[in-house]
């Protein structure tokens, strides 16, 4: 009985810790957004992101220095014809929202006339294969935690 009660207290604590960490992840720290700025001409910056540690440092930029109104990182893929074959051309960089009067709301990816454009708002996030919003991951972990608690 004592061990079951101890497990219950520990489990309840784990649930609260998960919720607390989830909320802390939502707090935006006042720092400049850092994104990778490279094209598929650079080895490792193509459709598969595989820059070396040295190159990652070289191509990681502070967006606020180049684009004062940068709100996100971007990864854009277009296709060019070469010898009857479509070759993907990848461009990673900072997304400047200066021209828009609407608040920026990132989605995972947009398909725009022969171009796929993906946006994300975390440091170094455009170096990932698929950009997945952190909010989705946090909410999923919270829901799973609550479900486990309810059915345990």
Automatic annotation (TrEMBL):
Region forming the signal peptide: 1-32
Domain of life: Eukaryota
Key words, A-Z: Glycoprotein, Membrane, Signal, Transmembrane, Transmembrane helix
InterPro entries recorded: QVR-like (IPR031424), Sleep_regulator (IPR050975)
Membrane-spanning segments: 131-148
Keyword Ubl conjugation: no
PANTHER family: ATILLA, ISOFORM B-RELATED-RELATED, PROTEIN QUIVER
Protein name according to UniProt: Protein sleepless
Organism of provenance: Tegillarca granosa
């Amino acid at each position: 009985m004592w061990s079951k009660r101890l497990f219950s207290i520990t489990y309840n604590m784990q649930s609260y810790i998960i919720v607390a960490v989830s909320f802390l992840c939502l707090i935006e720290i006042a720092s400049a957004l850092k994104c990778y700025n490279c094209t598929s001409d650079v080895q490792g910056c193509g459709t598969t992101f595989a820059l070396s540690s040295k190159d990652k440092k070289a191509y990681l930029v502070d967006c606020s220095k180049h684009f004062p109104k940068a709100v996100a990182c971007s990864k854009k893929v277009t296709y060019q014809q070469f010898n009857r074959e479509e070759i993907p051309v990848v461009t990673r960089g900072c997304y400047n929202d200066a021209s828009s009067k609407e608040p920026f709301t990132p989605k995972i990816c947009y398909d725009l006339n022969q171009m796929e454009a993906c946006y994300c708002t975390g440091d170094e996030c455009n170096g990932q294969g698929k950009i997945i919003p952190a909010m989705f991951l946090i909410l999923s972990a919270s829901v799973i935690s609550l479900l486990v608690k309810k059915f345990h």
